[in-house]
Amino acid sequence: MKRDYNKAFEMTALYEISKLLGSSLNLKSNLRGVMRVLSEYLDMKRGTVALRNNSEVSIIAAHGMTEEEIKKGRYRLGEGIIGRVAKLGSPIVIPSIGDEPLFLNKTGARKIIKKENVAFLCVPIKFKNETLGVLSVDRLFGSKVISFEEDLRLLKIIASLIAQTVKLHMEIGKEREAFLEEKENLRQQLKGKYRLANIIGQSDRMQEVFASVHSVAPSKANVLLRGESGTGKELIAKAIHYMSPRAKGPFIKFNCASIPEGLLESELFGHEKGAFTGAMAMRKGRFELADGGTIFLDEIGDLPIALQPKILRVLQEKEFERVGGEKTTRVDVRLIAATSRNLEDLVSEGKFREDLYYRLNVVPVFLPPLREKIEDIPLLVEFFLKKYNEENHKSVSITSDTLNILTNYDWPGNVRELENTIERLVVMSRQKIITPSDLPFNIRDYNLRARYASQIKDALPSTIEDIEKARILDAIKKTGGIQAKAARLLGITPRQIGYKIKKYDLSTPK
Ligand SMILES: Nc1ncnc2c1ncn2[C@@H]1O[C@H](COP(=O)(O)OP(=O)(O)O)[C@@H](O)[C@H]1O
Ligand SMILES: [Mg+2]
After folding, report:
1. 99 contacts 123 by C-beta, under 8 angstroms
2. If you measure from the C-alpha of residue 407 to the centroid of ligand 1, how many angstroms do you get, rounded to a whole number?
3. b/e map 347-366, b = 16+ CB within 10 Å
4. Distance 415 CA to ligand 1 centre (A)
5. Helix (H, G, I), strand (E, B) or coil at 43
6. What's the Cα-to-Cα distance from 11 to each of 7, 8, 121, rounded to whole Å?
7. How far apart, in whole angstroms, are the C-alpha atoms of residue 208 and residue 226?
8. Which letter does DSSP use for residue 437 in this model?
């Protein structure tokens, strides 16, 4: 490159640099671009931008250096030339690196170049009187003695452009921090309302569940937990038990769908010695084992109709006989039942006794499917990441676009599927950060299909606002105009729906 500066040439460089500085929100990559442009205009071997952070200056972007070399570029204030410029706030020019004892070559990037032919120009990046960092370049020159005044002038202008950008980024950073802090405060306040250890649920739907748990736990009332598989029924059953006065008693779990019908009765009520072939000794059943505590009967809808009167009797009379026995056994047991099936349908089909249904259904608690509490997804992801990182001695995190995909997926297996997915991602990850390409194909594909489907559906171009408006109108119609219900259907808070209704002026029926 020629040394004779021509103004137009310089202006082009400055124009390109200022354009680059504002090109994205990523300061580092913008600065990298600036150094590249600079190297094209100056006969520059290397260039670095180092920024100040308390008592240190570290290189954050460079041209002509490897990542490794960049990492080594950290200087205390006053250390070496970069450290000195940062401390003093005025430029330093080393006409020939080879003659300079101050020159640290800390990064080791200059092994190849013969030091004599390289000048080092270093200018402060200043905003008003504050030194934010240091811009430096290695300038190649031949054997001629030259002055670097022109170079310095250009570098100072560029440094001041960089300073403005850096300052702006610092301000944005501060605002962002303040915003995040406020958000966290709000979250903490909300959290305080209802909390259950190790159960995540900031969504309105889960807050309702927590409220029911708090009010029902101290009593002896039967609870019926309803919800799809993987929504946390067992987790809630345990929470009720451990928050109840029976916490010190046993928590006995039994899945009514887990064993053949013929064995169910003896499993539940026990048997006497010799009650049937193979009954070598007396054996207690689950109800007896749960005495003084809680029995959790999962998939109660699968309980055979022949056994239902016996369950009803335990609930009403607190007594039963073991299989093959005459003696009546009395127990003090609290029942929590769960079902993923529609018990009302089973009742009307004659597969489930109505009297038992009413007995069980004293306090029903509905656990929402994950797709109806999407605001809890990021919290659950965070919770499971922490859990499985600890278990596996890892520190894997997730990118925001990956989290986005997880939030948009419909999770037919609910929280269990989400938990398994995160566990697998943590266990399998070889990188520190999970990106969309790490996700199982069906989850990534779901999002693609969903997007594609909505594109097909709205053959005419429509804005996000249009889609949102249509969904809200639809939900309001479906719920007979009850906003809170419509909000629930959409998985947003009543406040959010209120805001949107106002925004789109949907309050008057159209
Ligand atoms: N709200 C929640 N917070 C944290 N973990 C949850 C939550 N809901 C479910 N899980 C976890 O998801 C998995 C499935 O929950 P589980 O209670 O067995 O569901 P269900 O009995 O409805 O099939 C469990 O590992 C459970 O700990
Ligand atoms: Mg279960």
Report:
1. no
2. 17
3. beeebbbeebbebbeebebe
4. 6
5. coil
6. 6, 5, 20
7. 14
8. G
CA of 434 to the centre of ligand 1 (A): 23
C-alpha–C-alpha distance, residues 333 and 286, integer Å: 10
Dist. CA 306 → ligand 1 center (Å): 31
- Alpha-carbon distance of 293 to 300, in angstroms, equals 19
Q: State the pTM of this model.
A: 0.56
Q: Report the residue among 372, 416, 417 best suited for mutation to probe ligand 1: largest number of ligand atoms under 8 A from its CB.
A: 416
Ligand nearest to the backbone CA of 230: 1
DSSP one-letter string for 158-196: HHHHHHHHHHHHHHHHHHHHHHHHHHHHHHHHHHHHS-B
How far, in Å, from the CA of 233 to the mean position of ligand 1? Answer: 7
DSSP 83: H
Ligand 1 near 417 CB (within 6 A): no
pLDDT along the chain (510 residues), means of 10: 57 81 80 88 84 91 90 91 93 79 69 64 92 91 66 88 86 70 59 70 90 90 95 96 93 93 92 85 93 97 95 94 93 97 93 92 92 94 96 95 93 97 95 93 81 56 67 83 85 84 70
Domains assigned to the chain: 7-173 (3.30.450.40), 204-368 (3.40.50.300), 371-457 (1.10.8.60), 459-510 (1.10.10.60)
Q: Which residue has a Cα nearest atom 27 of ligand 1?
A: 235
List the residue whose alpha carbon is closest to atom 15 of ligand 1.
Answer: 232
Indicate whether residue 402 lines ligand 1 (CB < 6 A): no
**DSSP 8-state secondary structure symbol assigned to residue 144:** S
Decide: 419 in ligand 1 pocket, CB within 6 A: yes
